[in-house]
Every structure is written in C-alpha cells, then in structure tokens.
C-alpha cells in the first residue's frame, strides 16, 4: 500500500529535478571547464573504466526495476521459442557468410588493442611495446570505449583471445535480430518482425559486420534498445522508465561519436512526454546520468587538440561541408541501388526499405489518426527515425562519406536499420492481404535471398581492401618463424601487439636506433624484422623502387631483403631483417617523426620487469 501523499511525491520529484539540473551543471563544468585537454586525457585514462562499470550496472538496475525478475515469467511459449530459433538461425547464417575475422583493417584491430589493455590494466589506451610487457608507447584511440570495455569483460571470462571479438559480435547479432523483431512487433506485427530479420540477413553489409571485430552491431543493438525504451516511456513516462531510457542513450553515445546525436531527439521526446502528461517524474538514477557522458567528452577534447589522430584527409573544405553533398549522394545511390560485387549492399533490400518508408510516410500524412489511435507509442519511434536521417545527412556531408567504398559502407548502418524496419512493415502489409499480396511478399524476399547468396559467395566488397592482404602476409611470416624472441618494425605495430609480438613503429624505431642496436648487441631478440611499403615508378625506361614516407630507417641500418610482394599495381611491400646498425652513418630524417611527447606513459611495476626478464633468451 502506498502511503505517500501526492504532495510529498511532487516535492520529491521537484527535489530530484533540482538535483538533476545541478548534476548537469557540475558535469558540464567537469567536462569543459575544470580540466585542460591534457588533464582531460588523464582523467579519461584513469577513470573511464570505472565509469563504464557504474554505467552498465546502473542500466541493468534500471531495467530490473521496470521489469523485475520473476520465475513465473520464464515460461517459454511457442511464439517466443519460434522467435528465438529464428534469431539464432539468422545469427549463424550471418556469421558463417564470411567467418570470424577482421574485415576493416586497423580499425577493428585497434578496438581489440584497447580491449586488451582494459582487460590487463584497466586503462583505455592503444599500445605498442618494444620489450614484451614494457609499455613503451601508449595513446588513446579516437573511438568511444564501450565496445572495447564489453570485449574486455569477455576477455575476463574466457581469457584474452583475438577470436573473442568475433564471438562477441556473433552473440550481439542474435541480440540485434531479437531487438529488431521486438521493435517491428510493437510497431506492426510479428510477421513484420520476421520479414525484418530476413531483410537483415540478406544485406551483405550485415554479414561483414556480424563476423568482424568492429562495434557496428553493438551500435545497432543500442539504437534498437533506445527505440524500445522510448516507446515504453511514451506510454508510461514515470521515473523508472525515464532512467532506463536516459541510461540507454548514454551507453549508445559511448559506442560511436555520431550516435551521440540521438541525445537530441530523445531529449525532445522526454520533454514532449512531460508536456503531454503535465508531470515531471525523475528517479535518482536519472539524476546522476549527466556524469555518464564525461568519458566521451574527455576523450573527444583530448583527441581534438591532436587533429592528426583522426586520420582524416580533406580537400580544403574541412571534414564536414555541404560541398561534399553531390559527390557523396551519388556514392550513396550507387551503394543502395546499383548491383556490384564490390558493394556490400543489396538493391532489392534497399528498394523494399525505401518503398516501405514512402508507404509509411504516405499513410502517416493521410491516415494519421488511424495509425496512432490504438498504438500511441508509434510516435516514439520518430525519435530514432529522426536520428537515423540526421546521421545519414552528416555522413553525406563528410569528406570520407562515400558509402560505396568498402571501408565506409558501415557508416550507413543506422539508416539501413530503418530500411529493415520499414521494409518489414511493408512486406507484412502485403502478406496480410493474402492471395497476390502474400505471393508478392514471398517473391520479393526470394529475390533478396538470391542476390545475397551470390554476393556472399564472392565477398569481393571485403577482399577489395588490399591492406588486409598486407597484414595477413606479414602475420603469416611471423607465425612461420621458429620459437624465439623477435622484434617487428612496421607501420602497424598495434596489430603485432594484439598478436603477442614485440613491436615498434618505423618512425619510433628511426628515433631509437641506438636503443635497438643496444638490444641487438645484448641479443635480446633472435632477429629484428622490418616491414616496409614503397612505390614503383618508371624513370628513363627503367623501373625504380622508392620507399613511402616514414618507411625508411635511414643509412645507418643495413637490411637484408627476405621477401617482396606487390598486392596492387605500382606498389610493393618488402620484408627484411636488420643485419647491422652503424650509428656513425646515422642522419637526421627528412620526413617528420611523430611527437613522442603526446603519449601517455604507464609506470612500470616490479611484476612487469620480472615478466620481461623471463622472456629473455
């Protein structure tokens, strides 16, 4: 029996509202005013792991508060069993199209690198190491850390393995398909949910990410979670539902920077619900929610003072500009509607999705009262739709926003998610018409499946990126070496780091030749290998090879070429070993060396030194 009077409840809600505003002000001060960028970076490194633990725990508590655990609710109905089987089959299907592996070179490996350090040291940094366990160089990544944090928890349970990233995405794919089904079921019908699952399975881009090491599937899971919680909050805007929605939004923002855009439509939704109900209800969990965004802001500020860490080129217009719109909208059209084995898209899925959007938009304008009368929560999905369109507009005006490029296509997934939902609703509408409508929906799904099977069998959209060929070539060599202690000098040291090899970047090696020579004299390493890339040009009728900038170790180093291969025209990759280093011949490099002072350094412990000594021959 509730003995709290309405007056007491109003006073309590007012108190929590004041506390929420105060917390927001404090969070803004801590994010932008109290700390300089360097100190913000330090705070991010030292505190973000704890922040992620508290944020995750708070979200679980908020969900349990609104959906308390009960044994009586665990009864598995036939409908639920069918849905779970469909999601499991779908996730197995998507995972086995390309199999577990890194599909986006360096981006996915760097996420694993960060997760490795979160697992081992609870610090969110990328790491290179020249001496085994010695952290010779650490820096923060530009990507938010919720996926590496989640992956570090998997490492904590099963032990650190690279494959954990692929298995995590397999599990997340099943969750994604279930959440997709639930959204479509709440919006329209169970049939719409099954059609949406089918459309997702027949989009090659989904197969690429379902078995990769990136955070795209997690991002989609978070967006769908926000969608479901938005609908629940719109139906019942109480404090508990608000807490789960706000915390889900905070988690989503910590998966991808762009996903933070969802804060605006969710905020509008919350304000609209309060106006509609003429009552503001806030729980204590919501009061502390503003602090959940601190790691994201600290990381962004630290990265912003070092723009080169973003690794984006521009044509002089900046990273984002309306001047890129025409070029990128043309690329988007090709990705969505032009059949090409180099595109991870499906014209059939795109056609159904866009037709579904047009269908829903038309009915929303002509039969608005009929659509929303019995299901007012359908209004809430507009928050996610608004976010998806805003995100797509942002990508279309991004310098590197060509969706028909294999490494960029994944940026369109939030909008493609809306196509799955709208396409599922359209197909379900046809299916419910029976006779010709039912046949039409089945034929359309059949066409989607035929196209996707053809695309999956070739997967040229993944193989078109030759960077992965270079990575695999060097790792195959490293794996073939007899047991020993090897140092690899390359432009991809963080990849060697997650594979467990001693490593150092070429630019850092150039600046540390005396140290490398010292360790060679001490026989710290069995061998020191160098991986370099160069270009092939024709001069006076002869082929001339030259190394790319930042790939030379200078005249002091004598190299013995072991292997040389070319993956693309006018390009070569060379694998050599260092025979000798004569410091008397060393010259200052003509190309720039990365600023070593920008890195964060972790202090060595006695355990680190002991572990290193045990690795020595």
SS-derived structural category:
alpha/beta
Helix content: 55-70%
- In terms of DSSP E residues, the strand content is 5-15%
Radius of gyration: 27 Å
The parts where pLDDT drops under 50 for at least 5 residues are 594-599
Tell me how many strands there are. Answer: 8
Q: Kindly, what is the distance between the CA atoms of the first and last residues, rounded to a whole number of angstroms? A: 73 Å
Provide the residue-averaged pLDDT.
88
* Shape annotation: globular
Q: Number of helical segments?
A: 25
Oligomer: single chain
Largest sheet: 6 strands, mixed
Structural features, described:
Mean pLDDT is 88; it is low at 594-599. Strands 3, 4, 5, 6, 7 and 8 form a 6-stranded mixed beta sheet that branches. Strands 1-2 form a two-stranded antiparallel ribbon. The radius of gyration is 27 Å and the shape is globular. Helix content is 59%, strand content 9%. It has helices at 6-33, 37-66, 78-98, 107-121, 146-158, 163-187, 190-201, 204-210, 216-235, 239-253, 263-277, 284-287, 294-304, 325-337, 347-366, 368-372, 381-396, 413-432, 436-458, 460-463, 467-480, 493-499, 506-510, 513-521, 606-615; strands at 126-128, 137-139, 486-490, 502-505, 527-539, 542-547, 557-565, 571-581. With 617 residues, it is α/β, with parallel strands linked by helices. The longest helix is centred in the first third of the chain and has 30 residues, at 37-66. Helix 7 packs parallel to helix 19. The chain starts with 5 loop residues before the first helix and ends with a helix.
């Amino acid at each position: 029996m509730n003995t709290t009077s309405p007056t007491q409840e109003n006073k309590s809600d007012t108190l929590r509202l004041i506390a929420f505003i105060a917390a927001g002000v404090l969070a803004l001060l801590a994010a932008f005013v109290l700390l300089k960028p360097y100190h913000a970076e330090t705070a991010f490194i030292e505190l973000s792991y704890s922040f992620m633990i508290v944020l995750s725990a708070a979200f679980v508590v908020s969900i349990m508060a609104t959906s308390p655990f009960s044994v009586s609710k665990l009864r598995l109905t036939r409908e639920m069993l069918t849905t779970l089987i469909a999601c499991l089959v779908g996730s197995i299907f998507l995972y086995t199209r390309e199999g577990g592996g890194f599909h986006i070179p360096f981006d996915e490996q760097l996420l694993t690198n960060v997760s490795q350090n979160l697992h081992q040291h609870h610090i969110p940094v990328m790491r290179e190491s020249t001496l085994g366990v010695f952290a010779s160089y650490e820096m923060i990544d530009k990507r938010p850390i919720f996926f590496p944090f989640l992956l570090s928890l998997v490492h904590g349970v099963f032990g650190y393995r690279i494959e954990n990233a692929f298995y995590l995405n397999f599990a997340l794919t099943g969750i994604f398909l279930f959440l997709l089904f639930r959204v479509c079921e709440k919006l329209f019908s169970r049939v719409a949910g099954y059609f949406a699952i089918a459309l997702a399975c027949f989009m090659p881009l989904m197969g690429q990410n379902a078995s990769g090491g990136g955070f795209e599937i997690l991002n989609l899971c978070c967006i769908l979670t926000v969608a479901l919680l938005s609908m629940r909050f719109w139906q019942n805007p109480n404090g508990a539902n608000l807490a789960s929605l706000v915390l889900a939004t905070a988690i989503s923002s910590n998966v991808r920077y762009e996903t933070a855009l969802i804060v605006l439509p969710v905020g509008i939704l919350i304000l609209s619900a309060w106006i509609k109900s003429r009552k503001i209800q806030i729980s204590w969990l919501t009061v502390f929610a503003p602090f959940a965004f601190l790691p994201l802001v600290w990381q962004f500020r630290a990265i912003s003072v070092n723009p080169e860490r973003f690794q984006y080129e521009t044509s002089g217009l900046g990273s984002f500009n309306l001047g890129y719109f025409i070029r990128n909208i043309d690329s988007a059209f090709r990705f969505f509607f032009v059949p090409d084995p180099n595109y991870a898209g499906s014209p059939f899925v795109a056609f159904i999705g866009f037709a579904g959007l047009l269908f829903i938009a038309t009915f929303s304008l002509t039969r608005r009262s009929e659509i929303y009368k019995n299901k007012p929560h359908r209004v809430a999905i507009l928050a996610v739709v608004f976010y998806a369109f805003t995100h797509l507009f942002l990508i279309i005006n991004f310098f590197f926003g060509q969706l028909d490029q294999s490494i960029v296509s994944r940026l369109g997934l939030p909008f493609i998610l809306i196509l799955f939902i709208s396409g599922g609703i359209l197909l379900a509408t046809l299916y419910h018409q029976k006779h010709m409508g039912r046949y039409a929906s089945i034929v359309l799904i059949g066409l989607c499946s035929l196209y996707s099977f053809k695309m999956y069998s070739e997967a040229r959209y993944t193989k078109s990126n030759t960077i992965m060929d270079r990575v695999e070539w060097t790792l195959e060599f490293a794996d073939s070496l007899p047991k020993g202690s090897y140092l690899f000098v390359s432009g991809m040291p963080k990849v060697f780091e997650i594979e467990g090899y001693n490593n150092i970047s070429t630019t850092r090696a150039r600046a540390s030749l005396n140290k490398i020579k010292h360790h060679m004299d001490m026989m710290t390493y069995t061998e020191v290998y160098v991986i370099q890339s160069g270009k092939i040009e024709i001069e006076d009728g002869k082929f001339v090879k030259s190394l790319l900038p930042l790939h030379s170790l200078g005249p002091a180093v004598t190299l013995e070429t072991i292997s040389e291969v070319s993956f693309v025209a006018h390009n070569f990759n060379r694998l050599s070993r260092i025979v000798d280093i004569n410091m008397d011949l060393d010259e200052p490099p003509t190309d720039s060396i990365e600023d070593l002072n920008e890195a964060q350094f972790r202090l060595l412990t006695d355990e680190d030194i002991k572990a290193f000594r045990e690795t020595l021959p």
